[in-house]
Write a structure and sequence with these properties.
Order of helices and strands: HHHHHHHHHHH
Shape: elongated
Radius of gyration: 20 Å
Number of strands: 0
Number of domains: 2
Largest sheet: none
Number of helices: 11
Strand content: under 5%
Distance between the termini: 60 Å
Structural class: mainly alpha
């Protein structure tokens, strides 16, 4: 058991190093996000090194660290899993792209935002080309396109009616976040319309 635990600790510490290097070098994380990653990395390293720790606790720490990387689509996410594979760190990946292919939609708005912002780049990565067929890659592009159209229609409908229906408030907020974070508001709306949407 000690050897298994020691090997697991080594694998986990290497994972943290890879995450740290990737996040520090990233152009896609702002300083606040980078600080949060560093804080939690240091916190977990301290726990791993100081406390007598069980394999179950180590697996729990691993799960916490991997949550972001399992539940996002983006350049850094792909680079993270590529680095793990290169370093023979074999943690299981729950791939949001598979979910989108199965359900014809993204699980959450933040996943859709990541896909919209980065798919044109990552779809050409070897890691994507090896995991998905040409048809699946095209299907993801179509899912992104449909997601954008659906969100646009919700915003346009609210603009036409000059109100957000009570049952659509959460959806409206998600659509606003999507368009805003993907830099699409100015593509689809005039300055006045954006102001009006903001004030609904």
């Amino acid at each position: 058991m000690t050897n298994i635990k020691t090997e697991y600790i080594e694998k986990l510490l290497n994972l943290i190093k890879i995450e740290n290097r990737l996040v520090n070098d990233s152009k896609h994380f702002d300083d606040k996000h980078k600080e949060a990653f560093v804080y939690f990395e240091n916190y977990y390293i301290e726990i791993i090194n100081k406390e007598p720790i069980t394999l179950t606790q180590l697996k729990s720490i691993t799960s916490n660290i991997l949550t972001f990387w399992k539940e996002s689509i983006g350049i850094d996410t792909e680079l993270f899993w590529i680095e793990l594979k290169k370093n023979n760190i074999d943690f299981e990946r729950k791939d949001e792209i598979n979910f989108a292919l199965e359900k014809n939609r993204f699980r959450r708005v933040d996943v859709g935002i990541g896909a919209r912002k980065y798919w044109t780049v990552i779809k050409d990565f070897d890691s994507i080309q090896k995991r998905f067929s040409k048809e699946e890659i095209e299907k993801i592009s179509l899912i992104i396109e449909n997601d954008e159209k659906t969100r646009l229609e919700i915003l346009k409908k609210c603009l036409r009616k000059k109100e957000i229906p009570q049952t659509q408030r959460l959806k409206y907020g998600e659509c606003w976040a999507y368009m805003s974070q993907c830099g699409l508001l100015k593509k689809y709306f005039s300055k006045e319309e954006i102001e009006e949407l903001h004030n609904l």
